[in-house]
């Protein structure tokens, strides 16, 4: 069974840059899996950040960007702010939809 | 503006069924799908399945096959998710999400419905 892998946690300094990744337990992530990224703060519904690998959802600031890095999808946050402290989930479409386990991002 | 408004919290006993609704507004309902995603307390997000609001086609997560049914009522722009034979590990917040059928992503989310399964 294919598992989507994400770093369990990551830390970034305010103003810094961080790249979160989204891989597969077997194989490489490609654009044909339509990688998307979601941000969630406790008690809130997820917010859509990136879809189709690198397209920002409406209203998402351009300091959030998506890409393929090597064999993984990646979400890069440049100029991290305190309110970026959230859980981040990637999603891949592989016939059915697979969520990664999420990355808890701390900004400090 | 696009809105998805879900029904209220539910408390169910093990073995019972629950049906959660998701009323859509602000867009042409049949032009998108609706996915259902759940989140157990302190856990990550889990995709449950998808339904086309255009023709009712469905795609369910394998682990829920046989226990979940997703339907839509185009006359009221409402999607429904029914989960049967509830167990304690079905306790979760259930979200509906509008699904773009071309780029295969969730672009708008409901507010979530807490379903608690407890004897």
Q: Keyphrases for this structure?
A:
heterodimer, A: 108 residues, mainly beta, seven-stranded mixed beta sheet, four-stranded antiparallel beta sheet, 0% helix, B: 119 residues, 54% strand, globular
In short:
The complex is a heterodimer of chains A (108) and B (119). With 108 residues, chain A is mostly beta strands.
Q: Can you offer a commentary on this structure?
A:
The complex is a heterodimer of chains A (108) and B (119). Chain A has 108 residues and is mostly beta strands. In chain A, 0% of the residues lie in helices and 51% in strands. Chain A contains no helices and eleven strands. In chain A, strands 2, 4, 5, 6, 9, 10 and 11 form a seven-stranded mixed sheet that branches. In chain A, a hairpin with a 1-residue loop joins strand 9 and strand 10. In chain A, 40% of the residues are buried. By secondary structure, chain B is mainly β. Chain B contains no helices and eleven strands. The chains are: A mainly beta (108), B mainly beta (119).
Q: Let me know the largest β-sheet of chain A.
A: 7 strands, mixed
Roughly what fraction of the amino acids of chain A lie in strands? over 45%
Shape of chain A: globular
**Strand-and-helix sequence of chain B, N→C?**
EEEEEEEEEEE
**Distance separating the two termini of chain A:** 36 Å
Low-confidence stretches of chain A: none
**Estimated helix fraction of chain B:** under 10%
**Poorly predicted ranges of chain B:** none
Structural class of chain B: mainly beta
Architecture blueprint of SSEs:
The complex is a heterodimer of chains A (108) and B (119).
Chain A: E1 4-6, E2 9-12, E3 18-24, E4 36-40, E5 47-51, E6 55-56, E7 64-69, E8 72-77, E9 87-94, E10 96-99, E11 103-107
Parallel strand pairs in A: 2-11
Antiparallel strand pairs in A: 1-3, 3-8, 4-5, 4-9, 5-6, 7-8, 9-10, 9-11
Chain B: E1 3-6, E2 10-12, E3 18-25, E4 33-39, E5 45-52, E6 58-60, E7 68-73, E8 78-83, E9 92-100, E10 105-109, E11 113-117
Parallel strand pairs in B: 2-11
Antiparallel strand pairs in B: 1-3, 3-8, 4-5, 4-9, 5-6, 7-8, 9-10, 9-11
């Amino acid at each position: 069974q294919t598992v989507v892998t994400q770093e369990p946690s990551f830390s970034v300094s305010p103003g810094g840059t961080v790249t979160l990744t989204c891989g597969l337990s077997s194989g490489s992530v490609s654009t044909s899996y339509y990688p998307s990224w979601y941000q969630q703060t406790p008690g809130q519904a997820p917010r859509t950040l990136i879809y189709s690998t690198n397209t920002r959802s409406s209203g998402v600031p351009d300091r959030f960007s998506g890409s393929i890095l090597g064999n993984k999808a990646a979400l890069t946050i440049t100029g991290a702010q305190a309110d970026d402290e959230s859980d981040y989930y990637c999603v891949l479409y592989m016939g059915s939809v697979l969520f990664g386990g999420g990355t808890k991002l701390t900004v400090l | 503006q696009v809105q998805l408004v879900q029904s209220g919290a539910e408390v169910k006993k093990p073995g019972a069924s629950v049906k959660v609704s998701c009323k859509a507004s602000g867009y042409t309902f049949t032009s998108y799908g609706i996915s259902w995603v759940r989140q157990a307390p302190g856990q990550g997000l889990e995709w449950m399945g998808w339904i086309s609001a255009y023709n009712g086609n469905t795609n369910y997560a394998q682990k829920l096959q046989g226990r979940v049914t997703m339907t839509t009522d185009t006359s009221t722009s409402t999607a429904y998710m029914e989960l049967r034979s509830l167990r304690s590990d079905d306790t979760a917040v259930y979200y509906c999400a509008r699904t773009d059928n071309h780029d295969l992503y969730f672009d708008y989310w409901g507010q979530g419905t807490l379903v608690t399964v407890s004897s």
